[in-house]
Amino acid sequence: MKIGFIGLGNMGGPMAANLVTAGHDVIGFDIHAAAPDGVKMAAHATDAVTGADCVITMLPNGAILRSVAAEILPAMAAGCLFIDCSTVDVISARDVAADANAADIVAVDAPVSGGTTGAAAGTLTFMAGGSDDGFARAAPLFDIMGSKTVHCGDAGAGQAAKICNNMILGVTMIVTCESIALADKLGLDRQKLFDVVSTSSGYSWTMNAYCPAPGIGPTSPADNDYKPGFAAEMMVKDLGLSQQAAEAVNAETPLGAAALAEYIQFVEEEDGRGRDFSAMLPRFETKPRT
Ligand code: NAD
């Protein structure tokens, strides 16, 4: 396939390179990033999408997606497949899909989890929203860039799944860190806490697979001085998107709101920026009760 790929940053770069390795002809465009291995770069976004069978975007946010989509949709051929893999707000995803459909372009929103290591290894999880036809056409590409794909529903459903998942992740990480810091202060050995929780009703992905305590459980960013991984500011973005969505549909999400406030404070007023989101643990270790 001839694929136009726009947004070749930390995630998009290795995803595009994996498509090249699988034999696709990838023409990229980015306002800053260098060409990933094997990707030919276009001078303009419109050049990257002209004549493409499929266009993939991997951009920072919904506003940028909207502006890129407004530029490229008129240059894309009718029948072209448009897959947006960025994490954006549900409304932007639905609006861009509607604009694409109006131009006879098949749109799929397909945000990912798995981070930069998953992008490089081709083991991302894709959460897709769009028509059955769009999903069927996109699935072989998801199989190259990832190892698991769920068709979540119509346009925007992929983004909805992503922000709901990450709201659970953000809240769970905070309470996992709170629990370990509380256990410390109660004189309970961290390894013993892990041994109990990881096999009891308090188990979670954040404790079992991504333990925020160094030296406990499988290797995680905590074992690498909390270098991300998944940066705390990315968690601020995703928790912000879930609050934006909750406001739009009048959903009560008190713990999601509280988690957002904690991560904003951590990133903007403390030392969280540039650290993994699990660095909440050293924060709670030193924090007195307010
Ligand atoms: P990034 O900042 O490294 O990459 C984004 C790229 O988009 C940059 O290279 C930037 O130059 C480019 N860009 C910005 N505006 C552009 C424009 N108008 N035209 C062309 N290119 C433009 O970010 P990333 O880490 O690759 O994340 C991309 C998306 O993936 C985000 O929506 C993020 O939330 C999501 N995501 C990231 C991770 C992660 O671990 N990094 C995990 C899951 C999802």
**Small molecules bound in the structure, each named once:** nicotinamide-adenine-dinucleotide
Distance between the termini: 58 Å
| Contiguous uncertain segments of 5+ residues | none
> From N to C, what is the helix and strand string?
EHEEHEHEHEEHEHEHHHHHH
Shape: elongated
Mean pLDDT: 97
How many β strands by DSSP?
Answer: 9
Tell me the Rg in angstroms: 20 Å
Class by SSE composition: alpha/beta
> What does the largest sheet look like?
6 strands, parallel
Task: Tell me what you see in this structure.
With 290 residues, the protein is an alpha/beta fold. Helices cover 48% and strands 14% of the residues. The protein has helices spanning 12-21, 45-49, 62-72, 90-102, 115-121, 132-145, 157-185, 190-197, 205-208, 232-248, 254-268, 280-286; strands at 2-6, 25-29, 40-41, 54-57, 81-84, 106-109, 112-113, 124-129, 146-153. It has a 6-stranded parallel beta sheet with strand order 3-2-1-4-5-6, sandwiched between helices. Strands 7-8-9 form a 3-stranded mixed beta sheet. The longest helix is centred in the middle third of the chain and has 29 residues, at 157-185. The mean pLDDT is 97. The protein binds nicotinamide-adenine-dinucleotide. Nicotinamide-adenine-dinucleotide (NAD) binds at residues 6-12, 29-33, 45, 58-60, 64, 68, 86-87, 112-113, 115-116, 230, 234, 237. Residues 6-12, 29-33, 45, 58-60, 64, 68, 86-87, 112-113, 115-116, 230, 234, 237 line the site of nicotinamide-adenine-dinucleotide.
